Design the sequence.
């Protein structure tokens, strides 16, 4: 069955355009689709980053003077939506998942190549639609959470386009999730056991389960919300007897797992990068697998911690506090294991390694504030303030985005056969790390002392700290320049990397760089020990 | 070079230094605004504990990462791999159980804090409390029992709308744009929104409660310090969300009575 699909696809593949044009085609090659996801995501990252800069310019002064107030709300809504649905989720799942998973399971492509291409090609139109909504009657302005009744009472066209766009992106995400589960479970090469898979496969299996279980709930919720907006039904509209808190429950039932949809793949990627550059096996493989699954299970039952001030009964607050705080245990296990992986290694300090270590430090910080936020009495004071803004940027930027950069430095030779400049990479890391911490660390203090989130104006006593934060944001914007220069210079005339510049043992490196269309010239190798550094198997290489 | 101390002593030394620094920072660095309600010192106690535990973990992990990068970096003359160490079951058990215990203790402790703030009191049956039997009440922290509401010194009805708070004093039959309350008296507020979701936040009191349309919420607090504090809307409510603020004025009881009587009289004369 799989064999016949494979041969069918290879016929189709030979008819597809060659060269860079294939990245603009409906390609079925998982490697092309992976790059399509990555480049498309990065373009949206630049848009989302521009919006973030606009927010920080507005907040450099206490008055609302840079843009009109309703535009400011549109900007913050688009910033959140673009960064989550068009940059982080597609890139850590779609880009790296598509590129790596078939190699890791020893397959020649994903289980459903056409579904895979459809999943990608849903993203550019829905992203463009979202951005274009600004030019119609103004984009959505109720925040990326779109809480009713605000989302029902603000201008309709923007909100409806926002809903349509998020529905399409959610559909894309579900297609991808189904594909990853099928590929990991069904397309493993004969002889490859589940417990021999590289950790990123486990992370993607866990993530895809979350995607498939929770994204449909978001879709259903947003469809009901669109009924409230266009057909004047009363699901969430209190004027018509609806209940606004029900929306929050439904929304967060997806949107808290969404945090794990953004960070679990990053946990998988860092588990691939650290062993290679520290020349040591991944520490505690089995516990790492169980901790991923623990996070998946717990991640589904913690959503109401976003609603501690909404009005929830005490028993519910208590349950969600304990469940949320307990996520720290499997997450902590992963961090201890990564540090133990470094311990006693022969560490090459390069851009990929620096971004991964930056990730560990940033994420530990964000995790600690996360445990604090899980405590109801703590959360009540800082909920919906800049403390929360700082916390989740430490998780999604300091965590996931650092790993995206780390992964780009790590797998660039795989994709292009060329090395990136380490000098520019280290400059990129230094500016990003300093800029990021300068931007977000002070925001904890702002939140504790009385600055709510999503405001265009604030008490003048907070001006100085906001300006520090804005300088940090400026550095973050600048940091993309050495990165982009590095990418273009390296593609144009980077040093030849050879097939396996890092002497890595995971399967994607056991073929040529860049790989052939069918991934391997002959049979896919059976990699029983993807982390066998320091063992005889590694010394042979 | 003579070995002065063995490895374990260095480890103990570093760990005590991390603890020492964390405790020092925890007790000496104040990140919070002034305390002005009975909730605030309870909150700050929790904050201090979480801050110290967080610092210990953060500084410890950062040192471990930076030390590894430095100590185990590949020297120019080195080739080959590190040690083929794949795991250590007892270590895994240690770093599963210790964090679980810490998390559990923090959870129980914050439960205790929450209880002291009044959050764990039994949820009121709405029909006993409110005239309209169909109305649902959602409680915030420091919810009052039925008796407390009846015997309360001050009950205020808060209505929030885009982009203002209005405070209705039922006993005086007047509405004010500023919330005046006597110091050291319990205030019980029933809040309702006229349009979208808002939130009532006073940073100096460490309390926050959403104000929801179609669903009253209640919030009780006891101010302890005379002064003027900001009331901030903390839930995105529209373009002027950032400007949706009011003031709470905590005054001595006599001053409060003067203000109350003045307003009541004006209302009557109209």
Sequence:
């Amino acid at each position: 069955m799989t064999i016949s699909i494979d041969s069918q696809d290879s016929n189709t593949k030979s008819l597809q355009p060659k060269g860079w044009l294939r990245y603009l085609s409906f390609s079925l090659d998982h490697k092309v689709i992976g790059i399509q996801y990555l480049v498309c995501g990065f373009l949206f990252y630049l848009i989302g980053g521009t919006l973030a800069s606009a927010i920080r310019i507005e907040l450099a002064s206490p008055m609302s003077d840079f843009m009109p107030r309703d535009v400011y709300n549109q900007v913050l809504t688009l910033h959140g939506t673009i960064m989550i649905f068009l940059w982080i989720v597609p890139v850590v799942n779609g880009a790296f998942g598509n590129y790596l998973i078939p190699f890791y399971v020893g397959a020649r492509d994903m289980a459903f190549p056409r579904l895979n291409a459809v999943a990608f090609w849903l993203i550019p139109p829905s992203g463009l639609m979202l951005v274009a909504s600004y030019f119609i009657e103004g984009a959505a302005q109720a925040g990326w959470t779109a809480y009713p009744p605000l989302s029902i009472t603000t201008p309709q066209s923007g909100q409806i386009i926002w809903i349509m766009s998020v529905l399409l992106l959610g559909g894309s995400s579900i297609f991808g999730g189904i594909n990853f589960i099928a590929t990991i479970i069904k397309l493993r090469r004969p002889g490859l056991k589940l417990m021999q898979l590289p950790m990123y496969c486990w992370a993607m299996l866990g993530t895809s389960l979350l995607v498939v279980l929770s994204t449909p709930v978001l879709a259903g919720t947003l469809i009901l919300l669109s009924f409230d907006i266009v057909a004047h039904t009363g699901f969430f509209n209190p004027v018509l007897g609806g209940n606004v808190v029900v929306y929050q429950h439904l929304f967060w039932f997806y949107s808290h797992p969404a945090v794990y949809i953004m960070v679990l793949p990053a946990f998988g990627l860092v588990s691939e990068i650290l062993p290679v550059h520290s020349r040591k096996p991944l520490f505690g493989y089995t516990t790492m697998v169980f901790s991923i699954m623990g996070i998946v299970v717990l991640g589904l039952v913690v959503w109401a911690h976003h609603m501690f001030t909404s009005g929830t009964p005490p028993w519910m607050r208590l349950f969600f506090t304990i469940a949320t705080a307990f996520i720290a245990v499997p997450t902590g296990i992963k961090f201890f294991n990564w540090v133990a992986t470094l311990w006693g290694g022969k560490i090459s300090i390069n851009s990929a390694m620096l971004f991964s270590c930056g990730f560990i430090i940033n994420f530990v910080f964000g995790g600690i504030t996360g445990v604090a936020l899980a405590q109801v009495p703590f959360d009540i004071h800082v909920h919906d303030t800049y403390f929360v803004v700082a916390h989740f940027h430490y998780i999604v930027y300091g965590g996931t985005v650092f790993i995206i950069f780390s992964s780009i430095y790590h797998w660039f030779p795989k994709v292009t056969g060329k090395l990136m400049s380490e000098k520019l990479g280290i400059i990129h890391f230094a500016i990003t790390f300093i800029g990021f911490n300068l931007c977000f660390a002070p925001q904890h203090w702002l939140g504790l002392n009385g600055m709510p989130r999503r405001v265009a104006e604030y008490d003048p006593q907070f001006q100085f700290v906001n300006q520090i934060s804005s300088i940090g944001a400026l550095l973050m914007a600048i940091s993309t320049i050495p990165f982009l220069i590095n990418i273009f210079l390296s593609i144009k005339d980077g040093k030849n990397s050879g097939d396996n510049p890092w002497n890595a043992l995971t399967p994607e490196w056991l073929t040529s760089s860049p790989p052939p269309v069918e991934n391997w010239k002959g049979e896919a190798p059976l990699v029983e020990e993807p982390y066998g550094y320091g063992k005889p198997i590694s010394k042979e290489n | 070079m003579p070995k002065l101390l063995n490895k374990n002593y260095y480890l103990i030394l570093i760990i005590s230094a991390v603890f020492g620094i964390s405790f020092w920072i925890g007790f000496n660095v104040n990140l919070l605004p002034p305390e002005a309600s009975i909730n605030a010192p309870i909150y700050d106690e929790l904050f201090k504990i979480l801050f110290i535990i967080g610092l210990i973990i953060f500084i410890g992990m950062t040192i471990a990462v930076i030390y590894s990068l430095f100590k185990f970096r590949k020297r120019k003359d080195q080739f080959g791999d590190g040690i083929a160490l794949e795991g250590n079951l007892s270590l895994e058990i240690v770093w599963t159980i210790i964090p679980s215990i810490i998390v559990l203790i923090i959870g129980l402790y914050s439960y205790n804090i929450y209880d002291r703030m009044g959050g764990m009191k039994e949820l009121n049956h709405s029909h006993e409390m409110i005239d309209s039997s169909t109305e649902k009440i959602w409680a915030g922290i420091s919810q009052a029992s039925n008796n407390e509401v009846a015997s309360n010194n001050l009950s205020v009805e808060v209505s929030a709308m885009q982009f203002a708070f209005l405070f209705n004093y039922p006993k005086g039959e007047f509405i004010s744009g500023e919330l005046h309350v006597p110091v050291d008296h319990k205030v019980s507020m029933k809040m309702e929104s006229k349009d979208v979701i808002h939130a009532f936040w006073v940073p100096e009191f460490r309390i926050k409660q959403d104000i929801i349309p179609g669903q009253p919420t209640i919030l009780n607090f006891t101010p302890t310090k005379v002064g003027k504090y900001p009331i901030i809307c903390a839930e995105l409510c529209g373009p002027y969300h950032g400007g949706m603020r009011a003031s709470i004025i905590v005054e001595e009881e006599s001053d409060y009575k003067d203000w109350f009587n003045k307003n009541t009289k004006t209302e009557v004369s109209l």
